[in-house]
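TASK: fixed-backbone design
INPUT:
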């Protein structure tokens, strides 16, 4: 992240010590007030997530979801490494119902 960029602290989005959620209107007000600033989400991100390529077969994807108890799985283009989609449990369940 660039040094000159101002980053919003995470505590602006929590209303109290127990991290109770703010209402959507409170978050909207914070976003409008600090529209030019960024929120650093790196502390909450997985550095090396499990991924699948768009050429992978469904059994491999199902095995990853089951083995690692995943909620979502990024889909990557094998040619250039760009993200194509995010596959979720809901996507899998809707497909499996067919």
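OUTPUT:
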């Amino acid at each position: 992240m660039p040094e000159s960029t101002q980053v919003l602290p995470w505590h602006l989005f929590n209303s109290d010590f127990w991290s109770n959620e703010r209402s959507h209107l409170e978050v909207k007000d914070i976003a409008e007030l600090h529209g030019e600033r960024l929120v650093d989400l790196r502390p909450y991100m997985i550095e090396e997530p499990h991924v699948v390529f768009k050429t992978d077969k469904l059994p491999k994807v199902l095995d990853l979801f089951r083995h690692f108890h995943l909620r979502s799985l990024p889909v990557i283009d094998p040619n250039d490494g760009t993200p194509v989609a995010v596959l979720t449990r809901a996507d899998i369940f809707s497909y499996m119902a067919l």
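COMMENT: DSSP finds three helices and five strands in the chain.
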